[in-house]
Amino acid sequence: MITFDPGALAARLSELDSAMESPGFWEDQRAAAKVAAERARTQKKIETFEQLQADSGELDFMLEQAAEDPAWRDELDGALERLGREIGMLQEQALFTGEYDSGPAVVGVHAGAGGTDSQDWAQMLLRMYERWADGRGYKVELLEQTPGEEAGLKSATFTLTGENAYGIMQAEKGVHRLVRLSPFDSAHRRHTSFAQVEIAPLAEDDIDVEIDDDDLRVDTYRSQGAGGQHVNKTDSAVRLTHIPTGVAVVCQQERSQHKNRAQAWDMLRARLYDIELKKREEKAAADNAAKTDIGWGHQIRSYVLQPYQMVKDLRTGVTSSAPSDVLDGDLDPFMAAVLAQRAFGGGPDAVEDVE
User: Fold this and answer.
1) pTM for the structure as a whole
2) Is there a contact between 198 and 110 (Cβ–Cβ < 8 Å)?
3) Beta-carbon-side half-sphere exposure of residue 270 (alpha carbons within 13 Å)
4) Which of 63, 64, 110, 292 has its CA 20 to 30 Å from the CA of residue 150?
């Protein structure tokens, strides 16, 4: 079982301090920056734990006061709620032990079966993650979006930066299903749409991902999104295709082709590194680079807006009767349940999907 271990954190902090004090530490700037970043994260965890200890000590006094004076009860309730929230966040920190869990993520959203409805659904998912990220203080940088023929998006790719961004977003990897009355159906019938969410760590320059120039195809073209006259006259958008795996990435957000190419390169390396991770984790998987079918039988979560209101995660069984809140970014309960299930095991053997 994974637990929060302040003693182990203190020991690790001491190791990091010793490393930073060693001669020649700053000669390798990249390695030094990694150690410094880990030290800052470790120190923050220890400080949070110490603050929680201090706060919990004050509860004894508040309990005594509340027993004699009812006016203290509201303050006690508020303190207990805050303490519970902070303990939950500290426990969440213990779930992220992977090498890249604490770093940024590259997130791709792709429309699947369902035509225009699925393309609209992909755009709704993008908005949902933007709202969720904003609520957590994370930064979202949109790298690419390909508009649908009538509405919505065929695909979108963004980077997510914040504490444990990659570790947390792994809970969202998979196919998401939407059931609603279609705004694109003249008869206003009930439609089912699918979209897939892909997650990869944002590859750093020292990650060993070898890409042979002969295996790479580079295409440039005019950006499709908004951008004024510039995007109509300049072939600034860049698509990189890794021929052996078929992995392709597009970046068109910058005016400079050079900047788009650099960002596309980082995206490609992140995708290829994610494939390498899967090869290590999955035994002898021959189809590591193949995508899951974005359709029936593969969904991880269903969002039902008609004839009733429900969101249900098919891995953990966690549900919400307020889809509007979920689509506005209230994802933490779903993410926490998935991450806890992966870390501690357990959970339901099978979860029945909603109609």
Assistant:
1) 0.66
2) yes
3) 27
4) 292
